[in-house]
Amino acid sequence: MDKSTGQELRLTAQLWRALMVTGAAGIIVFLFFAQSVVMPQASLLVVLGVLALFAAVLHLFPITFLDSEWSLVHALVLGAAVLYGPLAAMGIALTGLAIGAFAGGLLAGRLKKNRQRFGKYQLIRRPIFAHLYEAGRLVVPLGLAVWLADWHTAPTTLPALGFSAAVRFTILYSLLHTALLLPEFALGLRPALRSIQHNVTTLALLEWLAMPFVTAAALAYPSLGVVSLTFLVGVPTLLTLLLNESNTMRSDLERRRQDLTALNEISEMMRYSLDLDTLLGAVQSQVSALMKMDNFYVALFDERKSHLSYPLAVKRGHTQTWPARPLADRLTDRVIKQRRAILLAHDAYKEMADIGVPVGDELIFAWLGVPLATPARTLGCLAVYSYRPGASFTQADQEVLVTLASQVSVALENALLFTEAQNRARQLEALNITSATISASLNLNEVFATITESVSEVSRGQRGAIFLLDDTEQEVVLLHGRGISEAFQKKHHLVRRDSGLARTLETGQPTLQPDIRKAQSQPYLDDLLAEGVHAYADLPLTTPEGQLGYLTVYYDEPQVFENEEIELLSTFALQAALAVGNARQYAQADQALARRAEQLRMLEIIGRQNSAALRSDDLFSLLLEYALEFTRSPWGALVLYNAGREVFEVKAQVGYQMEEDSIDGMQGITGRVARNRTPEIVNNVTVDPDFLDVTGGETASQLTVPIIHKNSLLGLIVLESPVPDEYTQSELSFVVQLADQAALAVQNADLYDQAQRRLHEQATLNMVSTRLAGSQDLNRILDAVVQTMSATLDSHLAGIYLWDEGREVFALQASMTRSEDFPGELPETLAPAALDIPTGARMATGGLNISHEQTGVATALLLCETCRALVFPLNAGSQTLGLVLAHAPANTQPKADDLNLPRLVAAQGALALQNAWLFSDVSQGRDRLEAVLNAVGEGVLMVNAEGRITLANHPAETLTGLSIHALTGSTLAELPAEARAAFGLPDDEIKALLAPPAGRADRPARQPYAHHQRFLERTTAPVWGLHDDPLGWVIVIRDITEEHQLNQARDLITETLVHDLRSPIGTVQTTLQLLQESLDAETGDDFTRKSLGIAERSLARVLTLVNSLLDISRLEAGSMDLRLETAALTPLVEEALAEMAGTARELGITLDNAFPAGLPSIKMDSGLIRRVLTNLLDNALKFTPEGGHIRVFAALAGTGDRVILSVSDSGPGVPPEYRQEIFKRFGQTPGTRGRKRGTGLGLTYCRLAVEAHGGEIWVDSNPDGPGAVFKFALPVSAAR
Fold first, then answer.
1. What confidence tens digit (pLDDT) does each residue in 238-283 have?
2. ∠ at Cα 1014 (1254, 986), nearest 5°?
3. How many angstroms separate the CA atoms of 1103 and 701, rounded?
4. Between β-strands 546-555 and 463-469, what pairing exists: parallel, antiparallel or unpaired?
């Protein structure tokens, strides 16, 4: 609500009060004349007086409800009107209010002194007009009710009129009395309606509860008399006391609850929040809740500035924005200064005027302020106030506000500290951002503007200016200002360093002026005040290179500079100084960069021309033109050095009058620079003794730069000027770069020539390679090499000699001319001194050495008188194959580059010759191998690891019916079924053959098989690489039909003999036994007995032989039943050794049982295996000499699935070629005889018995010395 609206509302309220007073007076007059007035009796006057006293008491001690006073005088007036008539009731009301107004003045002081005793009763001192208004509020509804009930025409009491008239009058009066409250609510004379909405019940009790009792008492008066009068007076009084007590208790409890709630919320806020705005919001809500006030504010005191700010201000429920102000002499200021609460309970505007405090435009009726303070400092003030007339604050309100302020103060201090920390952090962040911003630009004006604009972000300053030292460093120039007028900047553009205004440059420390008004007056400060500046700070701008000037920060208000702010500003000034220094250096370097850019432009053009040009003559002119332009020289020359002639050849010149195209290389300043190979500036040529004048005395200074590449002098750039001291180091550097470009141009030209030469060489080599690679014919290769060498050497005489190992000479093989032009042979050595043998091309066998005299060499090589010899060896690795001899003119000196191509051609020719010879050798070897394979009567196949046939002979072709071409390249699996059957290779055996071998096996595998009425044997042997990796297989197919037929015949004869001999042998054996028995019975002579013993033993041997043959036949036929059982090998070994121990002792042979323990048991026929061991031991005893050694041992195979038993001896051993034959029937080693001749069946039996168990047997050499080792392997789980 604005000020004008408030004034209008107050005026309307005054008019309403006046209307009520006037209306009451009119009603009294009206009733006085409408009803005849009769003087009451004395007893009635006493009663009316008593009622008036009670009315005065009820008026003096109203009920406080919703910050407003409420009394029950209207109930007493209603009872009096019912009982004694309206005029009597009005008289009671006026008399009671008059007594109350008078007594109030007398009792107010006493109640104030005894507030502890009477604190719960409210006694308000009001002006006379307020009492009149209260009388009007009682009389007006009474008069209106009388008029509406038509009682003014019947001057009798209501009891006489009847019950219904009394009830109707009571209701009318109560409604009218309550209706008159509405204007009071609207005009602010009562609390706002929104407060009444929550307390309608209490309001109804105040207005209506006493009415029925009062009316009943009045109507009962004729019957009850004084008792009803007592009831009439007592009910309102008792209700007043009860409601006062109830209201006081409720108010106390509510206030206590609100106090505790507010304190709890403030405590929670202190614990969880440091945000000032959040804290002030909590203060606002708690003040509104506790004090029921819509007007309050929080003032914060800035001790440093002595200012007050208002972060929170609420007026009539609306948030206000109040400006900050200096500390003055007001209520808020006094609370802060005195650090105590100030209470203006009511009529505050009067007390404010009395104590000398400005009242303001709006009247404040109540004001209460408490300090916000901590033990360390005063933070500010919390104040509440009211614009409502009649409003008041109590001591209890003050206590509540003090308690709230004490809690808020701690939280407020923390929030202020937190806010200060945040501000500090923001300033530091702004400093970092600003530093980065000003450092990001190298434009001096932009840097100035950024610095001055950033002043307000890192400090409280509003304006800024930059003063920099001039070149003399005696004056300071104001280069940029922000927020200050142009007139001020012009007036103070220059500041003398010694004037005192630039004191910060002398001290190197900030200069601070917190309040210009308190400083001694001077023009600079006066002009600042005119600009609105009241404080400033000068901050030195210092870099590692020295002082640049200073930065001035201007403030619109006086300041109290704190250390933190000064440090922040100093840091900002340091960053600003670095940015200004960088920008100044950039500005200074900008001109140099522009000049450098021109240099680069020239160099870029020269570089582009240099890259595009294949010849350097035009480029030399461009280089000299740019050198003259950049150095402003009228004379110049670019010369190249000719080392052969030791002169400088002029490639480009300007300004000189030269007739020769060359100059002496080592004279003058140019000669000195050429010798030293360093550029030189001569600023005064007249004092240089080496100077040679070619300009007629006009030259005053000279610049000479050598053109060098890899420390080799290529030429010079010479510039001359008529101005002394004309050339600078910058110009010298540029000309040096031009000299580098000139060197690059020379090198590019040389590289181009070399590239062309290399291209020619590559083309020639490609042609030679094509001719040589396409032929393996020796004569064609020799012709191609000699022709190419002749072409590359530009010689018509060239010949090729090849080394003849048998005669140890070089023999002529081919030449470009008649062979008579070259000697037919050359010795191994020639004299290099007499020949032009290229460096690095001398023969590995030494120099050619025929004669030390030139004529002798010429004669030996058939050289002409004007020729010289060039010799190029034909080397393939370290092997010398021959040489190329060429005749060249004697007056030419070939260069090293000219000899590269002939060397390369010779190297290509040597490789081609070597390849031709190797091809010839390989072809011959292949033909011989093919002849040998075809001459063998057995089919031969070579199969690689993937199963592909890589080689086959004609017998294999005959065997399969497939051509060699069809066989070669096919895999075994791809062959037709008939071909695979011819090789005896079903699918499963092909897969087994191609499976990766578990280990290296050197013994070939033999497999006999039948094919088309023929018996064949396939021998398969692996082929191993250098690192024991399998390369493939060799398969040999041999026809053994005839051998098979012979074996069948032999087996048939053997079986026939065995069958036919068994019966006679049995008969003879029986006969011998009978003879032996009869001889024993007759006790015959010893000779006969011995003869019979010999016969029995011989017969036993024959029988054993026959049984062996029979067992062998059964084993071969597979008809022998094995008695398989799981048994250990150790007992069998021990039994066999025990059986042979006697024979071994007789022969002087040691038997060693090295059979290990722990071997697994074998499923086997124990009898057969024991017989195998016995046969092997018997065979060993047969061939081991006396004193020999036989050892039996065993071991598990690598995978643990087989046991290998070994019997080693120290006999003569078995040659490798018979190690398979001795296991065949009747097979024996030729030339090896034992103690007794064997039958040739023992080892055959061993082989068949072991194979019947699924094992294998073989023989190796004894690794410990002479002898053999017979080994047989049995599977751990044997099966036939």
1. 666 666 666 666 666 666 666 666 666 666 655 556 677 777 777 7
2. 50
3. 135
4. antiparallel
- Torsion angles phi and psi, residue 1258, rounded to 5: -155, 175
- Asked if residue 358 lies in contact with residue 351, where contact means CB atoms within 8 angstroms, the answer is no
> What's the token pair of residue 1104?
């054993």
Q: What is the pTM of this model?
A: 0.34
Could you tell me if 638 and 739 are in contact, meaning their C-beta atoms sit under 8 angstroms apart?
A: no
For 947: left if phi > 0, alpha if psi spans -120 to 50, otherwise beta; the answer is left
Query: DSSP readout, 193-255?
Result: HHHHTT-HHHHHHHHHTHHHHHHHHHHTHHHHTHHHHHHHHHHHHHHHHHHHHHHHHHHHHHH
For residue 891, what are its two tokens? Answer: 């007056």
pLDDT at 706: 92
Fold of 613-755: Beta-Lactamase (3.30.450)
d(Cα 434, Cα 439) in Å, to the nearest integer?
8
Ramachandran region, residue 1107 (left: φ > 0; alpha: ψ -120 to 50; beta: rest): alpha
Q: Supply angle C-alpha 1000, 1004, 1010, rounded to 5.
A: 140
Residue spans of the domains in the chain: they are 3-251, 273-423, 441-536+560-591, 613-755, 776-912, 936-1039, 1121-1280
Nearest 5°: the CA angle 769, 772, 775 is 145
What is the CATH architecture assignment of 1121-1280?
A: 2-Layer Sandwich (3.30)
680-682 vs 535-543, strand pairing mode: unpaired
- Amino acid letter, residue 773: A
Retrieve residue 1098's tokens: 């011989």
Integer angstrom CA distances of residue 145 from 17, 149, 176 = 20, 6, 8
DSSP 948: B
Closest CA to 293 of 304, 306, 283, 278: 283
Report the candidate in 462, 433, 683, 436 with the shortest Cα–Cα distance to residue 578. 436
The Cα–Cα gap between 682 and 668 comes to 12
Rounded to whole angstroms, the Cα distance separating 190 from 137 reads: 14
pLDDT in tens, 1018-1031: 888 888 877 777 77
CATH topology of domain 273-423: Beta-Lactamase (3.30.450)
Q: Give Cα 474 distance to the centre of its chain.
A: 55
- Residue with token string 């009731």: 89
CA distance 573 to 283: 42
> Which CATH number fits the domain 441-536+560-591, given the four candidates 3.30.450.40, 3.40.50.150, 1.10.3210.10, 3.40.50.620?
3.30.450.40
Does an H or E element contain 899, and which? none
CATH number 1.20.1380.10 given to 936-1039? no
What's the mean pLDDT when you consider all of the chain? 77
Q: What is the C-alpha separation between 655 and 555, in angstroms, rounded? A: 69
Q: What is the pLDDT of residue 855?
A: 45
Assess whether the region 776-912 and the region 1121-1280 belong to the same CATH fold.
no
Query: What is the Cα–Cα distance from 738 to 609, expressed in whole angstroms?
Result: 13
- Structural tokens at position 5: 């609206």
Q: pLDDT per residue over 1210-1266, tens digit each?
A: 988 888 888 888 888 777 777 666 666 666 778 888 988 898 888 999 999 888 888
CATH of domain 776-912: 3.30.450.40
Tens-place pLDDT, residues 837-867: 443 333 333 334 333 344 444 555 666 666 7
* Number of residues that this document lists for the chain: 1280
| Other Cβ atoms closer than 10 A to 671 | 18
Looking at the chain, the number of H-run helices and the number of E-run strands are 39, 38
For residue 529, what are its two tokens?
Answer: 């005040």
**DSSP for residue 808:** T
The H-assigned helical ranges of 807-953 are 854-860, 900-935
Q: In whole angstroms, give the CA distance from residue 558 to residue 460.
A: 11
CA atoms within 13 A of residue 846's CA, in its CB half-sphere: 9
